[in-house]
Amino acid sequence: MPTTLPLSSEELTAWLRLALARGLKPAALRALLGAFGLPQNVLTQPFAALAAVAGAQAAHAALAAPRPDFAALLEALQDWRAAPGNALITLADPAYPPRLLDMPDPPPLLYAKGRLELLHARAVAVVGSRSATPQAIDDAARFARTLAAAGLTVVSGLALGVDGAAHRGALHEHGGTVAVIGTGADLVYPPAHHPLATEIAAHGALVSEWPLGTPARSANFPQRNRVIAALVEGVVVIEAAQRSGSLITARLANEMGRDVFALPGSIHAPLTRGCHGLIKQGAQLVESPEEVLDALNVGQQPSGAGRAPASRREPRRQKVSVPFERTRRDAGETLPLPLESPRAEARKPAAGLAADARRLLEALGHAPATVEILAQRTDMPEAVLQGTLLQLELAGHLDALPGGWFVRASRGT
Fold it and tell me: What is the C-alpha to C-alpha distance for residues 106 and 108, in angstroms, rounded to an integer?
């Protein structure tokens, strides 16, 4: 099981100072560490030596005075590291996830809570909409349970909707799950996921590249997504609008040579358009978790028999016939996609319907469901549920299918 190396006070101070240096990009820091070794060695070099390796901007950033609150941040980090289960993983540490080393800009520091061995295990990301439909929540949990039961670590971003369902599904199978978060490791976002984060830290792992105390900022999440993409062998997208943070993860994964899988859905559902777009661009259409396992050759032979560890295998190349749209990270531009589609785009209940009818229509989503499924999702009494279904059918908002199934009508909302 990987363990972090002990750090002297001098080394910890140097790591934190370089990691927090404004304008010192991870790729430049990695080059400096490769040239001069320990971070404290970097800080003792003359400007000319640093500039010769990483450029004048990086040299200025590395040698600049630490920020005014540096002493307080260092003290907070020392206290945080002393708490059970907390670990600071440096770029030079054997516990650093080997897959992240394939990135051009691996984070210099990772703040981790929980089982560090999961950062070295075979893993699959399960991501999707924050405003997920009930069917997507069910699918995310089901896929995660099956993937975890097969021995894969399930990675996601601790967001509402699909992410949370994926983490819970993996934990249900007593499997490993890793949450890559967009805040400091001492914070939880969204606040509603405090209990889930506590459970993940106890049975899985929480990981952040952000300094302690970093609040949730929109710009942090696309950067968080690149770590999710790098940690895994494949990414499963379950519901995504056309402008979605999940698509950023998928595109970054494709650039890194990971497999990208997408679940199809109704052509009338706004939150399936992103998945359909990925499929058109070459992502693998999957309808079951077993298809993901088959594509990744999981379960084809006994665990460990004739198979190299995840850190030593070559990444699989994405089977795409049409290239994904390239992001513009290398040019230093901000990713042009917002984190998530507006909730109003995701679900637009019919105007003028009674509250029970709107709630039932929202619970139905855009996939067929039985009365039993709808009763579980809404907690409506049977008589109210049956009456509301009849009202929606007569109003043209849903259709009754053979076998007791109901589906949202295309002429409805």
Answer: 6
Q: How far apart are CA 144 and CA 284, in angstroms?
A: 17
Sequence-distant (≥ 6) Cβ neighbours of residue 286 within 8 angstroms: 236, 261, 262, 263, 292, 295
Strands of 205-208's sheet in order across: 86-90, 109-114, 205-208, 177-180, 153-156, 123-128, 234-238, 259-262, 284-285
> H helices then E strands: how many in the chain?
17, 12
Compute the distance between CA of residue 406 and CA of residue 398 in angstroms, rounded to an integer: 7
Q: What is the pLDDT of residue 268?
A: 80
**DSSP letter string over 48-71?**
HHHHHHH-HHHHHHHHSPPPTTHH
Q: Do domains 116-343 and 348-408 have the same CATH topology?
A: no
Which among 379, 345, 347 is positioned nearest to 362, based on CA atoms?
347
Q: What is the pLDDT of residues 158-205, one digit of tens each?
A: 999 999 999 999 999 887 999 999 999 999 999 999 999 999 999 999
CATH topology (fold) of 116-343 = Rossmann fold (3.40.50)
What end-to-end distance do the CA atoms of the chain give, in Å? 52
Q: Where are the domains of the chain?
A: 9-114, 116-343, 348-408
Q: Name beta bridge partners: 237.
A: 127, 262
C-alpha to C-alpha distance for 287 and 265, rounded to whole angstroms = 10
Which residue bears the tokens 């983490």? Answer: 167
Distance between CA 338 and CA 384 in Å, rounded?
39
Sheet containing 405-408: order of strands: 369-370, 405-408, 398-401
CATH class of 348-408: mainly alpha
Q: Are 334 and 219 in contact (CB under 8 A)?
A: yes
Angle at 15 between CA 14 and CA 21, to 5 degrees: 85
